[in-house]
């Protein structure tokens, strides 16, 4: 059996050291911005996005995106306005202050990677990039298993964890483990806390779930 502990240690050390460096460097120049807020600025970039587009790019909920935007508004890194055509939509964009911060962020990544990769040959870099592409492909494949979906699309016989409920519904709570017993055109039957219940599709559409990861872990003694 292949041993991956050293590979795992190297990856953990890389990410930990890199993000520590990034955090320290940014705190010296933009102490009022967090790394997460820098990434929000990066997602907006030079675009004018709706809140839905922003949350989709960041892969976060609308509520989390709104909280992030409110903080950046107070710090004057972004602007927010209503769409001139559809007043129901809210558009966000970077202020000159935000654009300067974004430029700094991109320059940091460019300069730091030039320094890191300078002693590495073209052949070594090509081999490294091919390996990283394979690793990234594996991560994306696993990540799909953990992406929340509407209960509407859950599969019969599988277990899921309730991730988010967007409508008021007292029968289920976040982190509840449910099993899909049956799916029909207009309803889904589930088992939760040993109780069977049937939910209409209108309710299922408001519930986000994660597929429960049930792969057995084998421990060697």
What does this structure look like?
- By secondary structure, the protein is an alpha+beta fold.
- The chain folds into two domains: 5-143, Winged helix-like DNA-binding domain superfamily/Winged helix DNA-binding domain (Arc Repressor Mutant, subunit A, Orthogonal Bundle); 149-211, Ferrous iron transport protein A (FeoA) (SH3 type barrels, Roll), CATH 2.30.30.
- It is 48% helix and 20% strand.
- The protein has seven helices and nine strands; from the N terminus they run H-H-E-H-H-E-E-H-H-E-E-E-E-E-H-E.
- The protein has a six-stranded antiparallel beta sheet with strand order 4-9-5-6-7-8.
- Helix 3 crosses helix 4.
What is the strand and helix layout of this fold?
Blueprint: H1 5-29, H2 35-44, E1 49-50, H3 51-58, H4 62-74, E2 78-82, E3 90-94, H5 96-117, H6 122-145, E4 149-150, E5 159-165, E6 177-183, E7 187-192, E8 195-200, H7 201-204, E9 207-211
Antiparallel strand pairs: 1-3, 2-3, 4-9, 5-6, 5-9, 6-7, 7-8
Q: Any idea of the CATH topology of the largest domain?
A: Arc Repressor Mutant, subunit A
CATH class descriptor name of the largest domain: Mainly Alpha
The helix/strand series, from N terminus to C terminus, equals HHEHHEEHHEEEEEHE
Tell me the count of domains.
2
Beta-strand proportion: 15-25%
Structural class call reads alpha+beta
Largest beta sheet, briefly?
Answer: 6 strands, antiparallel
Q: Count the helices. How many?
A: 7
Helix % is: 40-55%
Radius of gyration: 22 Å
Q: Which CATH architecture of the largest domain?
A: Orthogonal Bundle
CATH homology-level superfamily of the largest domain = Winged helix-like DNA-binding domain superfamily/Winged helix DNA-binding domain
Please report the distance between the alpha carbons of the first and last residues: 14 Å
């Amino acid at each position: 059996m292949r041993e991956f502990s050293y590979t795992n240690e190297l990856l953990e050390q890389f990410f930990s050291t890199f993000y520590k460096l990034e955090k320290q460097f940014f705190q010296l120049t933009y102490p009022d911005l967090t790394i997460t807020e820098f990434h929000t600025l990066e997602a907006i970039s030079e675009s004018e996005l709706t809140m839905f587009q922003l949350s989709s790019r960041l892969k976060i909920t609308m509520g989390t995106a709104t909280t992030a935007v409110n903080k950046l508004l107070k710090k004057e890194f972004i602007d927010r306005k209503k769409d001139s055509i559809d007043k129901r939509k809210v558009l966000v964009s970077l202020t000159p202050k935000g654009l300067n911060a974004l430029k700094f962020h991109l320059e940091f990544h460019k300069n730091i990677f030039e320094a890191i990769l300078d002693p590495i040959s073209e052949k070594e870099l090509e081999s490294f990039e091919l390996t990283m592409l394979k690793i990234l492909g594996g991560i994306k494949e696993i990540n799909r298993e953990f992406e929340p979906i509407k209960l509407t699309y859950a599969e019969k016989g599988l277990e899921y964890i309730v991730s988010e409920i967007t409508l008021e519904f007292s029968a289920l709570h976040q982190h509840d483990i449910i099993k899909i017993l049956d799916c029909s055109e207009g309803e889904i039957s589930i088992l939760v806390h040993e109780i069977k219940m049937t939910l209409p599709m209108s309710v299922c559409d408001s519930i986000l779930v994660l597929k429960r990861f049930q792969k057995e872990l084998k421990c060697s003694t």
